[in-house]
Amino acid sequence: MAEQGERPLEMLPVGHRWDPVPGVTLIGDAAHLMSPFSGQGANSAMLDAADLAREVAATPHDLTGPVARYEATMFPRAEHDAAGAAQGLERFFSAEAAADPVAVFAEAMAEVGAAGAHDGAGGTDPAATRRTG
Questions:
Q1: What was the pLDDT predicted at 75?
Q2: Superkingdom of the source (predicted)?
């Protein structure tokens, strides 16, 4: 039993998939439960719902095709997001993070800033703005 203040982190394996079931599928955490370290949980659930609704609206009298098309889009996206979440979980709960959490966060933020610079979003290098002393 977890002590007061402790909460287990539950997640599905990265790349989790299931065999097709005609007219039946899952969205959100039911489809791709991951740790909160990619920040994609709610975004993924809303995107799942929108993708599935668009597919069903296109052919409302046949759910087999829409579900298959939704799952073909959702599975790779969920795998990518879950991999990022798993990487974040490993990074922030590592022995290195316990020894110097500020350095680990600064490194992660620098990576986010560098990724943003590649897509035109910009970004700030937290190491350059971090106080010393």
A1: 97
A2: Bacteria
Q: Tokens 């909460």 belong to which residue?
A: 7
* Structural contact between residues 82 and 11, judged by C-beta atoms closer than 8 angstroms: yes
Q: How many residues make up the chain in this entry?
A: 133
Q: What is the pLDDT of residue 17?
A: 95
Summarize pLDDT for 56-98 with one digit per residue, the tens.
Answer: 999 999 999 999 999 999 999 999 999 988 888 888 777 777 7
23: left (phi over 0), alpha (psi -120 to 50) or beta: left
CB-based contacts of 88, cutoff 8 Å, min separation 6: 35, 37, 38, 108
Residue located via tokens 């709960």: 93
Neighbouring C-beta atoms of residue 63, cutoff 10 Å: 17
How many angstroms from the chain centroid is the CA of residue 132?
33
35, 29, 45, 40: which is closest to 86 by C-alpha?
35
DSSP 94: S
